[in-house]
Amino acid sequence: MSGAPHAAVPAPAPPPPAGVPPIVECRRVSVRFGSFTALHDISFSIEDLPKQGEFIGILGPSGCGKSTLLNLIAGFLQPTEGEVLVNGKPVKGPGRDRGMIFQKYSSFPHLSVLDNVLFGLHLNAGDLGLSASERMDRALSLIAQVGLNGHERKYPHQLSGGQQQRVAIARTLALEPQILLMDEPFSALDEPTRLEMQQLVVELWHRIRPTIFCISHSIAEAVYLSERVWIFSHAPGQIACEIRDVIPPTVGVPPLLAQEQPRFKDAVRSVTELFRQVTETKGRPRKAGAT
Q1: Residue 257 DSSP one-character state
Q2: 233, 64 in Cβ contact below 8 A?
Q3: Contact indicator for 217, 275 with CB cutoff of 8 Å
């Protein structure tokens, strides 16, 4: 971990290169469902980095608005107050510059693996400007990248849970989104499969380079995946704590091996202590943990 984690509401990100707006920005965003306030006065700015998008891990107690935030960025919801912007433009609805992977398997049951991955490519063929052969090449390449070679003609019911999530990842990445939103994508998987998927996502992130927001209920998972970790307070949700430069990059390092490293263990202890403080005080931590 680079220094001690700091317990503070995120400061504005460093200014992006001249003329390039933040890739994602929230300006005093609140969301209410009837009398229930899911999010309150959320503000942050994520820079559009030229070489590698950031990986932001999101932790917090159940019902604190984490999924609501992802739905706002995806364009599935509109804020009650405030504004959400992507590339400097207000989010008015879904777009192919944003892709979302859900906890529940979302493959089309009547389509094969290949046809699932091709679905969005065919639907957006005009905008993408890809020929039929180019769409096929992209789909087959992604199927290979997520480790499903030889499964192209299988249907979802013939696949394991981990394989079904690989299909969802390939289908989402086929449209080359700038922003990837992941809502507890591995929580339904067994532990060995979850660890495999964590390593796959890190490798794909470094290869394809999107900005990623990933909700997790596992502190170790968030530490392994993320450059930056947010801890949400109880509802009404706010970003109560931010930890930057969580650990050195883990690309190519299997999760079990990473978890044996002293710096990883120190990071997990620090984030766990901050999480405990946030959830016990129902707000910002009293003080930052030290490493």
Answers
A1: H
A2: yes
A3: no
Q: Which two tokens stand for residue 106?
A: 């979302």
Domain ranges of the chain: 1-93+180-186+194-291, 98-176
Lowest mean pLDDT among 1-5, 19-23, 188-192: 1-5
- Distances in whole angstroms, Cα of residue 186 to Cα of each of 145, 252, 263: 18, 19, 24
The distance of Cα 215 from the centroid of its chain, to the nearest Å, equals 6
Q: What would the DSSP string read from start to end of 43-57?
A: EEEE---SS---EEE
Q: Is 217 in contact with 187 (CB distance < 8 Å)?
A: yes
**Residue-level pLDDT at 10:** 46
Question: pTM value?
Answer: 0.89
Q: Identify the CATH class of 1-93+180-186+194-291.
A: alpha beta
- Cα torsion for 150, 153, 159, 162, to the nearest 10°? 60
Burial (CB < 10 A; 0-12, 13-18, 19+), residue 217, is middle
Residue-by-residue DSSP string for 145-160: HTT-TT-TT--GGGS-
212-240 tens-digit pLDDT: 999 999 999 999 999 999 999 999 999 99
Return the pLDDT at 49: 83
Written as six digits, the tokens of 7 are 């317990």
Structure tokens given for 62:
């159940």
At residue 137, φ and ψ (nearest 5 deg) are: -60, -40
pLDDT at 276 over 60: yes
> What Rg do the C-alpha atoms of the chain give, in angstroms?
19
Whether 32 and 62 have beta carbons less than 8 Å apart is answered as no
